[in-house]
Amino acid sequence: MAEENEETGALTDGFHLVIEALKLNDINTIYNVPGIPITDLGRMMQAEGMRVLSFRHEQNAGYAAAIAGFLTQKPGICLTVSAPGFLNGLTALAHATTNCFPMILISGSSEREIVDLQQGDYEEMDQLAIAKPLCKAAYRVLHAEDIGIGIARAIRAAVSGRPGGVYLDLPAKLLGQVMDQSAGEQSLVKVIDAAPRQLPAPDSIERALNVLKGAERPLIILGKGAAYAQADNAIRALVETSGIPYLPMSMAKGLLPDTHPQSAGAARSLVLKESDVVMLIGARLNWLLSHGKGKAWGTAPKKFVHIDIEPREMDSNVEIVAPVVGDIGSCVDALLSGMGNDWKVPPSTWTGAVKEKVDSNVARMAPRLQNNNGPMDYHGALGALRTIIKERPDAILVNEGANTLDFARSIIDMYQPRKRLDVGTWGVMGVGMGTAIAAAVETGKPVLAIEGDSAFGFSGMEVETICRYNLPVCVVVFNNGGIYRGTDENSAGDDVATTVFVKDARYDKMMEAFGGVGFNATSPNELSQAVNAAMDSGKPTLVNAVIDAEAGTESGRIGNLNPQSVVAKK
Ligand code: ADP
Ligand code: TZD
Ligand code: MG
Fold this sequence. Notes:
Strand order of the largest sheet: 3-2-4-5-7-6
Largest sheet: 6 strands, parallel
Distance between the termini: 69 Å
Strand content: 15-25%
Bound molecules: adenosine-5'-diphosphate, ligand TZD, magnesium ion
């Protein structure tokens, strides 16, 4: 594509160098919203055979890039315009960093000379400075000959060690900069071994095995880092050889099937309280695990073994008696070979008690999942969807909301790794459509997105994107008419309560507006029929699932985190 120039021979420019640098590193999918100065970059990427998916809002393109990183171990790329587009993408970049997903936000930017003197350029903003505290690394490229190095640094920073978000600032001027084509080609860098294995120290493995050997009531907790690591067979072998019950965190569900005899998913309270040794694999002791202490963890003294690639994660909340620092694949392999053939499984008093609790909780739940009430409650509706995932275990489940999230997480069994994608560490509403789109694009598998009506609203316009690319995505909106419940009342004035939406809304018509299929489902049977039809056809579908406005509770399962006013409760 380079222009001919009589004196210097072939030329290239910033646009083409960016494209070639990405392609050289096997990055072929871009999630973007066009505009000055990156419209042509997107066009040229498409012309050069890259897949460029345009969204209606950068935040959703960003969430798509973030989850693409989680699914593929390659940085997902979000491409935006300057200032407002950049800021719209930044929430997703921070989300990716918080969740340890590799992602690169590439934003065009205005003229450095004008921005730095604050002279009011078009979409002026010092984007590099703003991005820095919100991501793992931030770089700006000023010269075309540095594009290769800039992109190589961004890739390496995103995927090596603990993965995270990287910001790459590309000023408008850079894209138009011209240089000699062969010098340009030579300036490109193919990143070798972008995420090198990090072997654990042998003595850390020995220490961990000794702690595990001394356990009477051991527990393994698998986090989304374990799902990210793609060491599925080794992790399964470790769990099965050790004989230790395991608890999957939300996005680690399916790493081993939730129906596995060692799964303690349905006995969470029991195993957190009663265990004496806990081995964390790619899971942090943050709020989602009550920081490893307090009521949820009971009074029995506990020892923690912690496997993570990030050394500073050790002792972050409680003392870790056996830190194992390295990549999960290598650490799990080393533990397995250290266990040898004479490994003693935990006492059956412990594994039996866990199994008994799991079985009784599962049995107690079962009849509630079979009700065919209309309007639906969460159990009836999710019971129907649970069966669909059981019959279609390779479908990807996307999930957000409050009650819609918490009930779906506990009710729907997952059978394969990396099939459950949700709100992550921050519990962000709005990840739904970007996540569903990237899941379909990156894997080619059918996607079922189970969305609270509030959660869906944050990214609902992307149903047009789903229709435009004709993606096999079935969105089910759990329509209870509000946030947590649709029944709140305002005790003063005419406005409706702060948590309440328009009654009897028909979200299915949004999908129909763009040529997709809409259904209105008022019972679990109708829901089941509609979703099965969608999954069979692969057509973009939205099912408006009418949920009893009274069925939910405040903040789902985390109502305890709400501060309480002691002064007045109206
Ligand atoms: P969850 O929310 O599921 O408990 P977290 O996001 O809290 O999971 O924890 C994921 C952890 O996994 C992070 O501490 C991260 O450093 C770690 N991690 C990610 N990838 C790897 C890997 N390949 N090897 C080791 N640790 C990893
Ligand atoms: N904004 C963002 C970006 N993330 C958030 N988590 C919230 C606001 C607060 N929030 C929750 O934590 S859950 C939720 C909000 C607004 C919506 C819950 O309502 P829903 O689900 O309709 O999605 P249910 O089934 O009605 O509980
Ligand atoms: Mg709702």
